[in-house]
Amino acid sequence: MARPVDLLVIGAGPGGYVAAIRAAQLGLKTVLVDKDGRLGGECLNYGCIPSKALIFTANLVHKLRHAGEMGIEYSGLRVNMEKLQKWRASVIERLNRGIEQLCQANGVEVLFGEASFLDPRRIRVVDHDKAVLEEFDAAKVIVATGSRPNDLPAFRFDGRRILSSKEALELAVAPAHLLVIGGGVTGLELGTYFAKLGTQLTVVEFLAQILPGVDPEAARIVARSLKKLGADVHVGSQATTWKEAEGRIVVAAETPDGPREFVVDTVLVTIGRRPSTDGLNLANAGVGTDEKGFIRVDREMRTNVRHIFAVGDVVGQPFLAHKASKEGIVAAEVAAGRAAAADWRALPSAIFTDPEVATVGLDEAAAAQKGFEVRVGKVPFAAMGRALAAGETEGFVKVVMDAKTARLLGVQIVGPDASDLISEMAVAIEMGASVEDIALTIHPHPTLPEAIMEAAEAALGRAIHVVNR
Fold this sequence. Notes:
The structure is a single chain. The protein has 14 helices and 22 strands. The protein is α/β, with parallel strands linked by helices and 469 residues long. The protein folds into three domains: 3-149 and 274-335, FAD/NAD(P)-binding domain (3-Layer(bba) Sandwich); 162-271, 3-Layer(bba) Sandwich (FAD/NAD(P)-binding domain), CATH 3.50.50.60; 349-459, Enolase-like, domain 1, CATH 3.30.390. The strands form five sheets. Strands 1, 2, 3, 4, 5, 6 and 17 form a seven-stranded mixed sheet that branches. Strands 8-15-9-10-11 form a five-stranded parallel sheet. Strands 18-19-22-21-20 form a five-stranded antiparallel sheet, with helices on both faces.
């Protein structure tokens, strides 16, 4: 007999476990099912968290290697990759335990297994040997199964030579020469990590700039930083085939300068993601998807089947953990009978390259396309005392304003701690603040957020520490 539950959540990533906890808080009898055997999903176990742990370490190594001008002198600096990987694993384990304890404290039942729909209400869960663990009769369902990396027909993942981001994060030895196919967020974050450990880096990006979709000025600063790290970046280029030769990999590519061959040790493919819906049998539930397999939802995160919801990567871009968590809360609250919707004004994003890039709202081009009369205020970090004192002067803060109303439309930050700085501007946009509000808010000195205040002043034509335009 199928066991009745108020809510079954399929997938324990940042969308699923958050949804399960919120639903339980609201009084729903909730079961959380995940096939991975570890809570936290792709983000915690194979993406956001382990990559940032490794990137932080690489940044520390890089700073130490370039700290001579600050008077820091040493000898014999080396990276113990075995200990580094243990550190990565310990961070993941600690967060795994934390989520498990939160589920227990909130009354969420956790079951590890693979779920599939038998019909719109009945879900079967099986173990890795396909033995049935349990069947549920769910009044409500939230699908939060996430996404997984795409590969290419000519570059299929083999876990040895051709890697996805998951295998790259678990390498016990940094490759001597790494070629990254795809100059987007994941490729450049991991590429920069390895480059700072001493790996020779080559990047092949199909489009005309790295970090497609990012403010071109910000992308150029990241490209300049990659060059300083010794990286070889090819935009407007396409890797076509590969072969093994004398224990190495020869990658053929078409570039604007003609055909090229790159002799490397490892290839990392980062060309986007696809929904993880295999085995769910969505057709049995009647749930609709788009042409790429992503589940269609409305502002309440409902699918076309009203008692079935979907959140996170499985509903499509942008693939952001914080977006998934917010959607999970919305879905849980709607499932519990509350009024909720995905109605945020601005969704911030952060890219952990060197320097970091963070954005929220509209950039100049998007604002102009929407018909705004755009005015921009831009302040380089080189004009900020705190940035100079820390030796972190690359980048800028750019404020995009509606010239007619002084409304804050968007912010782009490239530079030190951009991922932390952007939250202030997300709050400002969400609360409907004007650029005047930002400019009038006193920021402490000497700090990096002063650049935000100064950029707002620049947009209004009254900056002090940069020349007004």
